[in-house]
Amino acid sequence: MITVLRLGHRVVRDQRLTTHVALTARAFGADGIVISGEKDEGIIRVIKRVCEEFGGNFDARFIESWRGFVKEWREKNRTGIIVHLTMYGVDIDDERCGEMLRKIKEGADVLVVVGGPKVEGQMYQIADYNIAAGNQPHSEVAALALFLDRAIERKKLKGKFENGRIRIISNPRGKTIVQNKTKDQTE
Amino acid sequence: MITVLRLGHRVVRDQRLTTHVALTARAFGADGIVISGEKDEGIIRVIKRVCEEFGGNFDARFIESWRGFVKEWREKNRTGIIVHLTMYGVDIDDERCGEMLRKIKEGADVLVVVGGPKVEGQMYQIADYNIAAGNQPHSEVAALALFLDRAIERKKLKGKFENGRIRIISNPRGKTIVQNKTKDQTE
To answer: Within an 8 Å CB–CB cutoff, is residue B147 touching chain A?
Structure first.
């Protein structure tokens, strides 16, 4: 299981970015997201609607305390790996990340932490790995996409989104949207 | 030259996302971004400040009309490639993208178009390639990161950000920020 932890969500200000973090987590193969900070049920509704439409079993919820959640996660996943994505960390393509990526590909449970505005120093100590997608400032969405791309082979994602109402078929010149027949087609 | 065109920016609503698109473009190796939609000088200021601090020659500006810009770009870059990133397109890892990626690696000029809320149908026809980072809904930031990752080898980015005031050194356990000596160090 690969779970993303999004830290310090703020209602209104972070709504769209946190939604993009969650949808990127889903599309790039994570199994769920937990979000700390200000509760914002609108985000959960958006994610649930995407899952109903496009399939898959992606879990999204808010948590009370990231510290409590991380502690609990560690207890439940003794051999699991906690990865904190930060521009200060070791580049994902650095050879120091090779062993971690190998373990994930072999099935290790992972908690991927992506920051909000200010990440507390403790997070750098709690994480097993502090990982960067380059040491330039950019976006937690981009960092998450690159990390998941390196950790999960994209061709393995086929079959992860089977039970939705619709699906998109690659089209070099326009849009092809197909209704899946196995589900109620009322919209 | 790799230029990103961000379509249909809306002030307030898109401010942070467009900023993330621009910073991701810069960090993943594009040379500049042009933005259509509502003018928003705050974004340009943020990008300029990041360039001053972290180095590189990344250009960011608003344009009046995306159609006019694309037409002009095409005239100036006769052998250039226009790539439109969309969830409806052909997956970047599909073999149909191989030739395009090879041309980019060999130095072809590229205009990478990333959508705003509603992309006009014409864009799908104007583009040489409509490319997806998977056919699931997620984020233009993630799509751009993955596209640039496939188009530009990340190790080639070293040396692109040399003339800034500061730089970050990879640290497995905290933050290392170094002042560059070649620049005025007043902050």
So the answer is: no
* Domain residue extents for chain B: 2-179
- Are the C-beta atoms of residues A81 and A111 closer than 8 Å to each other? yes
Tokens of B79: 């052998």
Q: What is the pTM (predicted TM-score) of this model?
A: 0.96
Query: Which tens digits make up the pLDDT trace of B74-97?
Result: 999 999 999 999 999 999 999 999
The residues, any chain, with a CB within 8 Å of residue A12's CB and separated by 6 or more, are none
Does the distance separating the beta carbons of B167 and A137 come in below 8 Å? no
B2-179 folds as Alpha/beta knot (3.40.1280)
Residues of A in contact with B30 (CB under 8 A): none
> Nearest CA of chain B to the CA of A23: how many Å?
5
Q: Does A120 touch chain B (CB under 8 A)?
A: no
Q: Looking at this predicted complex, what is its ipTM?
A: 0.95
Indicate if the pLDDT at residue A186 is higher than 70: no
